[in-house]
Design goal:
The chain is mainly alpha-helical and 204 residues long. It contains eight helices and four strands. Helix 1 links the parallel strand 1 and strand 2. The protein is globular.
Amino acid sequence: MILVGRFGSPFVRRVGITLRLYGIAHEHRPLSGAVPEERIELQKVNPLARVPALVTDDGEALVDSATILDYLDRLVGPEKALTPAGGPERTKVMALIGLAVGAVEKSIGAYYELGRRPADKVHKPWLDMLLEQSKDGFEAVENMAAAPWLTGERMTQADVSTVAFLDFAMQNRPADSSPLDCPKLTALAKRANEMPEFAETNPY
């Protein structure tokens, strides 16, 4: 099995953490579509040159982290899967992930707005809105959080994804923007990042 993409992408990272938590042997190829020579290699796996991508042991290429995680959950079975197979438990986990995905997507939008555009082309009202939406999303997850994990006593994919996403947002949030007010999520990330499965994928 081959995981393609750099852990600087929070979507690659959540797959990398999950593979480690499941104990699935794999090769990691840290390719980026932003690097021309790496983009050529990446397109052999994913024509869109996006990450993450996962090449299964059967040689099938899967793209999009949600698709990959669904495949891994089915591979390890419902007893070990980090996303419950059904019922209200699944709904809760998916609701948390949905908010966290939305929040990090806004963080990524702000990251590219600042990092890819010339300073005189940055549209400040748009940037401010992205940062505010990201803040609102993470704080909504904060308000839903239980303890010690987001849904209670057991780690789920909501925890894995939220930690990967929050780490990216905190690392790349402009210093002059309003800080994320998420003490429970910050404590969760600190505890999770002490685990080898998280620490080994942390690019920061």
